[in-house]
Amino acid sequence: MAIILGDNRYGKAENRIVRIFRDQPRHEIRDLNVSTALRGDFAAAHLVGDQANVLPTDTQKQTAYAFAKQKSLETIEAYGLELARHFVEDVAPVTGARVEIEEYAWERVLVDGVEDDHTWVRRGQEVRIASITIEGSGDDRRTWVTGGLKDLVILKSTGSEFHGFLVDPYTVLEPTTDRIMATSLVARWRFAHADVDWDPVYAGIRKLLVERYATVQSLALQQTLYEMGRAVLEAYDEVAEVRLSAPNKHHFRYDLAPFGIENQGEVFHVDDRPYGLIQATVLRDDAADAGPAWDAYTGLV
Amino acid sequence: MAIILGDNRYGKAENRIVRIFRDQPRHEIRDLNVSTALRGDFAAAHLVGDQANVLPTDTQKQTAYAFAKQKSLETIEAYGLELARHFVEDVAPVTGARVEIEEYAWERVLVDGVEDDHTWVRRGQEVRIASITIEGSGDDRRTWVTGGLKDLVILKSTGSEFHGFLVDPYTVLEPTTDRIMATSLVARWRFAHADVDWDPVYAGIRKLLVERYATVQSLALQQTLYEMGRAVLEAYDEVAEVRLSAPNKHHFRYDLAPFGIENQGEVFHVDDRPYGLIQATVLRDDAADAGPAWDAYTGLV
Amino acid sequence: MAIILGDNRYGKAENRIVRIFRDQPRHEIRDLNVSTALRGDFAAAHLVGDQANVLPTDTQKQTAYAFAKQKSLETIEAYGLELARHFVEDVAPVTGARVEIEEYAWERVLVDGVEDDHTWVRRGQEVRIASITIEGSGDDRRTWVTGGLKDLVILKSTGSEFHGFLVDPYTVLEPTTDRIMATSLVARWRFAHADVDWDPVYAGIRKLLVERYATVQSLALQQTLYEMGRAVLEAYDEVAEVRLSAPNKHHFRYDLAPFGIENQGEVFHVDDRPYGLIQATVLRDDAADAGPAWDAYTGLV
Amino acid sequence: MAIILGDNRYGKAENRIVRIFRDQPRHEIRDLNVSTALRGDFAAAHLVGDQANVLPTDTQKQTAYAFAKQKSLETIEAYGLELARHFVEDVAPVTGARVEIEEYAWERVLVDGVEDDHTWVRRGQEVRIASITIEGSGDDRRTWVTGGLKDLVILKSTGSEFHGFLVDPYTVLEPTTDRIMATSLVARWRFAHADVDWDPVYAGIRKLLVERYATVQSLALQQTLYEMGRAVLEAYDEVAEVRLSAPNKHHFRYDLAPFGIENQGEVFHVDDRPYGLIQATVLRDDAADAGPAWDAYTGLV
Q1: Residue B228 and residue B256 share a domain
Q2: If interface means Cβ-Cβ distance under 8 Å, which residues of chain C face chain A?
Q3: Min CA distance, A271 vs chain C (Å)?
Q4: Which among C237, C215, C236 has a CA at the least distance from the CA of C227?
Q5: Which residue in C58, C91, C277 is closest to B13 by CB distance?
Q6: Are the Cβ atoms of D166 and A55 closer than 8 angstroms?
Q7: Residue A98's closest CA among A83, A110, A113, A76?
Q8: Neighbours of chain D (3+ CB pairs under 8 A)
């Protein structure tokens, strides 16, 4: 029996990069949180502290900032692909790269009803996320891209039921045919390839997810999630798989009976913890193996 | 020399109340975080543990939820006034009440371009805040109301300078005539009275703050804040005083020169800490004394 | 009626300074979060953007780091006094300075039972805090120092009652003679002068607070807080006033009756929100006026 | 091509359970954050909203609280095993269960130098974590247990080097032979079986991790992590694999040269983001396959 080094990687997490495009009077902004990680021949660093193969995490940071100017930053997916390809193609000991990105959205402020050219407020809503994973270089190169969103807080005040569930000796929950259903959605989708029109696809998927949440008469959060994933797959051939993670943000009907007040689903207490947590995957039955696509590096994605 | 009990109060903080109005097919939602605190004759509780004068914090909670149905919840200011008045008028030992409220905004989702009747996504942007302070009951009753907002993250990519500042032996900062100026604004305004059309005034003040931030050619964040406060006071007679607190969320121009890349205000690193923190008050010279209006109870407002 | 500039100040918040003393083989560490704010003649900056009187916040940062080496950093109170004095004495337009500091504690790790010379783990418990406020220079200089702690999470599993309270129509709470009482304590004390042996006084006050929390048979959190404050004032002549803020971190006895399980104060649910929040001041009846001592700049203290 | 339901599970996350043992005058406390998730035959819930096989997340919560009294809660590992076994053995549609637990440590307060029987302060330091995964019931039952810790903030003020690294066109980092090395460690270990003396093993592993961090002259964080993992495997036969994730919490030497002040590793700025992030696995070459042991459900572990 011997003790050995197993899977390992290292990188620079949470580079907070803002890119301003100011070639035109009307500026544009991209606001990112970028993490990079490398896999490769780094055993000597672990076993004997030899750094000869180790590109410093500081260098990964410099590269991320430099590429924000040198390369396209039109979409996080395209930018992440540039970064990941660079590491595996241009840095000899590197055999795999993972780039994870969050993008924060901004909206232009209105001045007398007209959009300002260079002032924005942060749109708080959901954060757009992406991951790019590349393994191998040259002809052996394989690429996985996922897109997604997180922190999309969505609530419906009716159209949600929960009844007919399994009852065991520890079950005290009452069934209901009308409740608030709310979540802070994380949705991620794996692309079948990297030849995608990233921005329209993102906008379209977000629209579908929200619409299905609104319109499905929900018998369980599970059902809603499945319908959301299915709608995405039906509409976008370039998507092979959808993963959804949805905390059930409980809104408990507040008991006002002691005060002689009727409460027909009007006053709720929002509880922080515990929360139900539902996770589901919807995919094509012929989807290629996911490989390392879902293997998260940081808590970012 | 004796040891005495000084100022004291107690209450229930952070009641997370959601109110759904469902009388019409098109539901409405109000999403609040409510804190209440009482002052009064509570010395016996401190000195000898006698609770006879102490209305439990649990009762304050029940009241906050009950009033969400029994009383108007059209605006947080009106609702807070109801709550505060109740405590000082109806609970004998109570001589003063403070209610602090945060309101989270939601926007209706679109389904096929049409607003849904009962599904919303949380608008992440700024949080609307208010505080109501009442002291004395009956003819002696005095009332202070503040409105405000927090977490309004706003950024301008040009139109901000900083130069001509004081230089001492510890000064190494370079002057600049063009920088990003970004903040996460807290703005609070004290009303001269409580006879206010709360929602339109809130919307109008928010609009003014954002517009002034965008349009003032800023020689310093101080100047921008003053102009924002002044604009509010000029437009709204019912506002006596404006207080602004603005962390300078530093966006540092990233040094790309080592890589032969020009960076003309295009690539920035967003730093978390430390941050400049500028605080200013703008008021009418004949404004009544603020009394306890600004005396915060929780970190909510 | 005119619009005027009211109270204002500015500074650099949350400088994260670590100071290593390495003159001896056994290193020492001080880990601080330092915020500085200045008051003075800054009207021109607000009114017309003239920065001639404005010492940049960046300079305040440089000074805070420089003083970590140039001046004593034996205690946060002594270091804060040096910083605050410097700003009011050496920077002409400055008439007042506020320094707020958090200190994070570390403890040496043991290697084979022996304390290591230069490795520590962060002690998570309470954070030591201090504020120094100076107004006026030369003979007019006045100084206020507060010490304190925050995030001291303390719990007693018995010895706490709550009954005999005021009952109104919204009261449903049941009285109890035995409950868990838990809080995340913030305690701050105002010194009567600045000629104090800071470290032993801090240690002694912390010890008293904890002991009184443990030993007082509590009829209400109010009573416990008062006894804690009184104990500090009785023991330390240099303390003029104690302020305590204690969220009641509710531990609700979990209802196991549906499962035929007795629960005699053994299984609890810890709730996040809402929470009771009790605040009390205990002081000497001849304490000098607090002036600006309690006027917080950041959320740090 | 068809759209299908893939991997899915659901449960109740973050049950905040406190257990007081009060059979003796000297009480004991266990403070937990428990999450449970189930896998099984839940396709009907997703596909058609049929809940007949779905044990509500509320029931999982009730069970977690009930077991805190009914079953042993001596260690989180033993308690988690009871919970997971119950779900797979006693709830027919359930084929797999995952339990993730955080435990917060408390230490007794001293009163006049003597440990109090029923008052504690929370030890802030590291959080102990565990996960239990069971698949199959009866003879087919397989069990995986991991232990671990997180949030162990550890720093050494010397004994850390970083030089000899790979240099590419984006490398500007200077090598160093003496720096601060600090991290907030996450360490998790997979047990070879479930017949373990949980508490002593936890204490022993924590001790080894800390000692190795202190004593290894570090040529890279990678090397330190490997040595930490190796020490655990050498000492504990019951551990098959160790995983370590270590953010490099950068302490940058502050440039005091502009002020004529020497800074020989004495004054540092602690930066929040970005941070290096190093992840390594150390294992026995004959370790059984990890199966689902590392497949996290929540952010807890």
Answers
A1: yes
A2: 169-170, 172, 258-259, 272-273
A3: 8
A4: C215
A5: C277
A6: yes
A7: A83
A8: A, B, C
Q: Which of C169, C172, C273 sits opposite A272 (nearest CB)?
A: C273
Question: What average pLDDT does range B17-27 have in this prediction?
Answer: 97
H or E segment at D16? strand D3-21
Q: What is the pLDDT of residues C7-57, one digit of tens each?
A: 999 999 999 999 999 999 999 999 999 999 999 999 999 999 999 999 999
Closest chain B residue to A62, measured at CA: B256
Structure tokens at D126: 């590291």
**CB C258 within 8 Å of CB C96:** no
Domain count, chain C: 2
Closest-CA distance, A182 to chain C, in angstroms, reads: 18
Do C200 and C287 have their domain in common? yes
CA distance A154 to chain C (A): 21
The answer to whether C24 touches C49, Cβ cutoff 8 Å, is no
Contacts of B89 in chain C (CB under 8 A): none
Q: Do A248 and D57 touch (CB under 8 A)?
A: yes
pLDDT tens figures, B248-297: 999 999 999 999 999 999 999 999 999 999 999 999 999 999 999 999 99
Q: Is A250 a catalytic residue?
A: yes
D89/D22 same-domain check: yes
Contacts of residue C260, Cβ cutoff 8 Å, sequence gap at least 6: none
Active site residues of D: 12, 57, 250
Q: Do residue B201 and residue B100 come from a single domain?
A: no
Separation of alpha carbons D76 and D62, rounded Å? 17
Question: Which one of B55, B165, B230 has the shortest CB-CB distance to C51?
Answer: B165
Mean pLDDT of D157-179: 97
Amino acid identity at C16: R
Domain enclosing residue D95, as ranges: 1-140
Structure ipTM: 0.95
Catalytic: B71? no
Angle ∠(D159,D162,D168) on CA atoms, nearest 5: 175
CATH of the domain at C115: 3.10.270.10
Q: What's this model's pTM, rounded to 2 decimal places?
A: 0.96
What mean pLDDT is predicted for residues A92-110?
Answer: 97
pLDDT > 70: percent of chain B: 100
Q: Is the pLDDT of residue C237 over 80?
A: yes
Q: Could you tell me if B260 and B222 lie in one domain? A: yes
The whole-angstrom separation of Cα A301 and Cα A187 is 10
Question: How do residues B163-189 score in pLDDT, each as one tens digit?
Answer: 999 999 999 999 999 999 999 999 999
Nearest-CA distance from D17 to chain C in Å? Answer: 5
